[in-house]
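Sharing a chain and its predicted structure for anyone who wants a worked example. Both blocks are below, sequence first, tokens second.
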Amino acid sequence: MSTRGGLVVLHIDGLGRDSLLRAVEEGGMPEVARLLGQEGYTALPYRCGIPSTTPFAQAGILYGDNREIPSFRWFDRDAGAVIQFGAGSTFKQVAHKYFHGTRPLCENGACIAACYPAGADETFGLAYRDRQYSGTGANRSAAQVLAPWAANPAHLADLLGHGVLAVAGVTAKALRERASGRQPSRAYVIDDMLEEVFLHHVTRYAVGQAMDDGYPAIYAGFYAYDETGHAFGPDDPYTRRMLVHVDHSIAAVAGRRRGNRSGREYQMVVLSDHGQIPTRRFDAQDGRHLGALLADWLPGCLVEEHNGKSFGTQKVPQTRVLLTYSGGLGHLYFASFPDRMPLPEIRRRFPGLAEQLAGLDRLAFVLGRDRGVNVALAPAGELRWGAGDAGEARELLERFDDPDVLARQLDRLNSFGRSGDLILFGAYDGRTQVNLENQAGGHGSIGGEQAHPFLMVKEEWGLDTSHVEGAHQLHPLLIDLRRRFTGR
């Protein structure tokens, strides 16, 4: 391969810019502090857009196109299926509909532990939280990556030492949480162990292999911090300590930028896709799921949640209602109907339903669409705006963020045909948000740091992110860096 320069992009999942800078200030990320202080890096703020989720943001970063990805989970009417990412990913059912005519960031390169392949020649069989690894031909499987990695005693010693500490730490933390009355999700505790002990180490190793192989562009995702934040909350000391391991991985990659076998001189970018905020569960006060409330309001209908729970009649329901959750963001679909339903039609078919939802103190507002106009239903009443500015919703939206920016971001989400017939936003008190899932920390919605990630680059490169209101607007900046450093 050519010995020209290269670009390696490290994606740190769920780490907001404020949290990054706080960790540096507290001494928890010495390598990042060194990069910021000695190597001329700067942590630029940008807005990831809404939804503040990994699949949406990463599609924008890697392809420059994240349209019709309305959340971590959504309902595709044509496929008749809930589309989601993670261990049970179903995106492959609809992947053919996406990214046509785009220029993937990793073309002829390597894309490691991401939601999408991004045009890469090599993924090392590692996908975003997908533990059923596979690969054929030149695209190696995870087993092929693991064999030489496991053959090195230093790697095994590192894994064993790190693994024992991580498993013991997470287990002890979970027991303390339960003893104090808090209930971290068991699934997230287990996932955290797997992410922290296994995938994080293997991903770091695969990045080094890709650099040794001389791929011109390399993208890799690290997810342990986000998983820990979901389990225990982003402000928890254990979650913050997870950034020490993230910092070690950044240092390991930084140290190989010039000393790799390919002879390429890599330039490194570190970025995050979204942040995370403390949350409280929707059913915390009375144990009632949103689906159960809807079933009471819609007699004769079957109400299903994406997690498998169902409420209401099971016998020839009048209407099938489907709820998909992503942190503090929910999508409500009238799945029996072939197209997304405008708000006037919802009101005609289901009188009072939208207003009942808007009256819940656990929701900030409910968003619908009426002939291209956004309609927010909130305790203050019905608020309308178009694509230009916040309009009648200014006072409502400024509780969460810059109202005009947020109005544009919400207008874009609300224009997607695959968004819910109604979009639900968890109540937010300026710090904590109501979460529709079982999480202590979350993202996906609006409010606080969840929509404010960072792009860490060298100041001398002259990048400006002040205009970036969505992760898809990062793509041309990264493509330009790739062209500068690789000559391609």
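Comments welcome. The chain has a mean pLDDT of 88.
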